[in-house]
Amino acid sequence: MPEPVKLYLASSNPGKLDEFRVLARSAATSASEVQLALAPWFDSLPPFGEDAPTFAENALGKALHYSRGRAGFVFADDSGLVVPVLGGAPGVKSARYAGTSATSAQRNAKLLAELGGKSLSERAAYFVCVIALVKQGRAVAIVSDRVDGLILETPRGERGFGYDPVFYFPALGRSFAELSGEEKNRYSHRGKAFRRLLAWMH
């Protein structure tokens, strides 16, 4: 039996690592073939400024930054909410949409205010996730996926995080904050993108 491939996540956030581990376990053929860990050297490097204009550039830049001088595979993701009627906002600035210190509730409030009076068709939105995989300073894969929905007029649900309470997923008739963890992993942009990466590796 071959040794599992070790992937280092360019993050110091154990919660994010746990999320990717759950996603790996949900991809039936990959759980025993991929070993995920936080990059132990993450905090020894200067922070990477995620200020590029696209999700792909941010993900790849971050992965390259944290793989410098290191052996093995390093991966990083960038994701966010895109609302076409707002010119693509919040987009790559999803986490900073209402200011760097704003809460999720404040970001959601700003988004709902921006969409005040908009019709149902104008409230179309999608989450997007891009994951970049690099090895020793060279990009080996960049994958992405998305999930389409609508922005609600008021938040719904207590689960999830970020924009989940205002993102309505028509296929299940609920907001992302009303889905179970298993349902969200199955349909989310990050889940779909990570499964695409695992499929590419095998």
What does this structure look like?
- 27% of the residues lie in helices and 25% in strands.
- By secondary structure, it is of the alpha/beta class.
- The chain has a single domain, classed as Maf protein.
- The chain has a 7-stranded mixed β-sheet.
- Strand 1, helix 1 (14-26) and strand 2 (34-38) form a beta-alpha-beta unit.
- Helix 4 crosses helix 5.
- The longest helix is centred in the first third of the chain and has 13 residues, at 14-26.
- The two termini are 14 Å apart.
Structural class: alpha/beta
Q: Detail the poorly predicted runs.
A: none
Helix content: 25-40%
Distance between the termini: 14 Å
Share of residues in strands: 25-35%
How many strand segments? 7
CATH architecture verdict: Alpha-Beta Complex
- CATH topology-level fold name: Maf protein
SSE ordering: EHEHEHEEEEHH
Characterize the biggest β-sheet.
7 strands, mixed
